């Protein structure tokens, strides 16, 4: 019949387009599913990394606390031993003074102890003094060692705190740089290689990848260096000059 071939061709073309449309939708759905799975895996990895970091920090703090508690306990024990030694020295001095007073009292009564008794007492006292002196020196050495260890731990803790602070500062500066670059050149995560602004982005960031370009750009900038009070110019800004916010809806539409 007339027009049958044309109708059949249009029907086949519609079927082909429908198959392509369904295939494209299927591929888009698969790509979206894969992208979502990748994002989920990335989120899980970040969560696991954050959890491991938190656990490590808690374990380090617990170890530091246990070590400090053990050192404080040992230091307290050493100080107690030092106090006991000092008390023994005081008792020994009191015994020497008491014997001297009793010897003087006995001498006034005409009673004198034999020289062997004095020698035995002096020998015993000197032996005890030597023992207490050795113990005092030993306890002082232990105290110095513990203090050095505690000071080392405190220094390590201060160093770790300083490193954490510096890391936060670096992350803050990096975030500010990313925000500035995003305002100037767009979000790099959503910036395809074939984007219209890609050549401009490469031009303005070429100094980050080439020393020769950095020297050339610096040379060009140095030609316009002027004092702050120069009437025909101004100083070069220390960083990027960010664009002002849109003042009306038309400008905002053009920026977007």
From TrEMBL:
**Which organism is the protein's source?**
Anhinga anhinga (Anhinga)
Spell out the GO cellular component terms annotated for this protein, sorted alphabetically and separated by semicolons: U12-type spliceosomal complex
Basic residues bias: start-end ranges = 11-24
Report the protein name in the record: PDCD7 protein
A Pfam family annotated for this chain is PDCD7
Start-end of Basic and acidic residues biased regions: 1-10, 25-42, 156-171
Disordered: annotated span: 1-42, 152-171
InterPro entries (alphabetical):
Apoptosis_promoter, PDCD7
Which top-level group of life is the source organism from?
Eukaryota
What the entry lists under PANTHER family is as follows:
PROGRAMMED CELL DEATH PROTEIN 7
Phylogenetic lineage:
Eukaryota, Metazoa, Chordata, Craniata, Vertebrata
